[in-house]
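Students often ask what a holo structure prediction actually looks like on paper. The answer is less mysterious than it sounds. You provide the chain, you provide the ligand, and the output is a string of discrete structure tokens encoding the 3D arrangement of the protein together with flavin-adenine dinucleotide.
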Amino acid sequence: MEYYKPETLKEAVKLKESSKNNYFLGGGTELNSLAQESLKIEALINLEKSCSDKITENQIGAMAVLQDIIENPAAPKGIKDAARHVNNRNIRNAATIGGNLGANKASSDLIGTLIVMKAVLEIITSDGKDESTVKDWIKSPKGLISVIKFPAPSRKVFHRRFSRTKNDIPTVKFTAGFTKNNDETFTDIVIAAGSVAEKVVTMDKTSDYLNGKAMAHIKENEITALIKKDINPIDDHRASADYRIKLVAAAVNEFLHLVPQEV
Ligand SMILES: Cc1cc2nc3c(=O)[nH]c(=O)nc-3n(C[C@H](O)[C@H](O)[C@H](O)COP(=O)(O)OP(=O)(O)OC[C@H]3O[C@@H](n4cnc5c(N)ncnc54)[C@H](O)[C@@H]3O)c2cc1C
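The corresponding structure tokens follow.
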């Protein structure tokens, strides 16, 4: 296996594009895990020298590690709270935000939050620099993520992580971004759910229903019907599909009842 530490993003991308078995290396927590043993890695391209780890209110370099994001006062609160959910500190000390996106796992603690915060990814390919929403990128990943931008860093985010034990991956990860109005309604709602499909998904029918609706007009049975249209989880050793739907419904309920008192 070859190992490279290029000085520039352009060089890193060129090395990556020279073989489908070449991989960018962030903190390596995922690439070095047993789950990746079957990968036929020809070369690792360490991004330490080429990719930024700078953290500001409006953008975070893809090589920033999760513990630094948590501890940096400038980082947006929504993403700090999401990073705190990642188990455990040893992982958070090495895992990068770019690697979390690159791993693109259904159980990611960060991807849902980045979607509902409306973060924008700066992507580098051999064609140059481009931008992508997180939702589009996770559907068809391409290129090197260099920077994660936060056009609305103070956007409010509600997180609910259900897991069998503290150290387990989430059985369901629920995240909602929203604006709370003076009349107790929510608008601009975006909801994302993790561990309910192959990738993190948005729950557009449920969020459309809740957008701008007064509490008195929200009906629990209607929400459950919409959740079933939005997600179609599988049964596995962590939970049945039906239980996952119940967890999502419980999270929506908590969001509607707890957030008005907290925000
Ligand atoms: C024991 C353990 C516990 C974990 N717990 C959690 C958890 O609680 N929550 C959670 O969300 N995740 C968890 N993970 C998954 C993983 O640690 C995270 O997804 C982590 O953020 C990956 O970051 P990394 O820098 O280590 O990625 P790496 O392992 O370096 O890379 C992961 C993938 O991303 C690609 N990549 C890296 N950087 C970039 C970039 N800038 N642009 C494009 N692609 C890139 C790599 O090529 C690779 O395919 C856990 C993993 C382990 C091993």
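Residues 2-149 form a domain with the Uridine Diphospho-n-acetylenolpyruvylglucosamine Reductase; domain 3 fold (CATH 3.30.465.10).
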